Amino acid sequence: MSRPLLRAVVIAAAVVIAGCSNDVSSSSRATTPRAHAGKLSNILYVNPLPGDTYWDTIGTCMQTEAKTRGIALRVVGPPGGNVDFQAMHNLLSQAVESRTQAIATWSSGSSRAFDALFARARRYGGMVATLGSRGASRNQNFEVGNSAAYKARIRVRAVARRSGRQYIGAILQGRTGPDLAEYESALRDEVAKHRNLTLVDVQYNNGKFTKDVEIASTMLTRHPEITALINYSGFTGMLTAIKEQHRAGKVLGYMGSEDGQRGGVQGAADRIPLSTRSAGRAR
To answer: What number does CATH give the domain 148-269?
Structure first.
């Protein structure tokens, strides 16, 4: 791919992806996107957690931006309600093999393995954007996304809008990492701003999302006063625990949204209320 065409692809893809973000880190940020958009024909978005309203809304927003500019955008992601890095790696590998022009995904949890694929994409002239990965990868063209602090704040604010006193249990991925410490600090700070909120327990799955059922169940048993669970990423374990503890309709699960309406296929089927609407265009 020639240098002018590569720059056009980078600019067009940056506009489509960054249109759904409140933060862009790149020297290629576009100011005149429509003049270049025709140079880019396809983008792949690997959604790390299909079913999570935060990541799904990014995909929906990207679809709208791409359609406006006549660019084909395909959205894929691992099944199962938890982040599956191997499945994501397979999808990214397929995209590289087919020489997809532009790839967007989250890379914080598996940056080294993904970086090798990003480097291969860059070698054939592909463009790579990481979303909310907080500098975990090195071989992308640019990083866009909302800060970890933003994600924590919108989840806490969703709980705060409920009437009456709310008792929160939080399942976090870990204490250290590119955005984990920032997330926890923002979560604690935001809880302290609301008179009706109390953070009663914080536990860590250390990236092992299959432990979420056990963690959430133990949390609900030890603290029967809990009215809301906030999960850093993944919802299957949290929902399963709520159902097994017979707390459906009493405990609300939050995964990245700004209201407390019921939503989500699995959540609605189990009559477990979920927060459903992410920020739309983030701020």
So the answer is: 3.40.50.2300
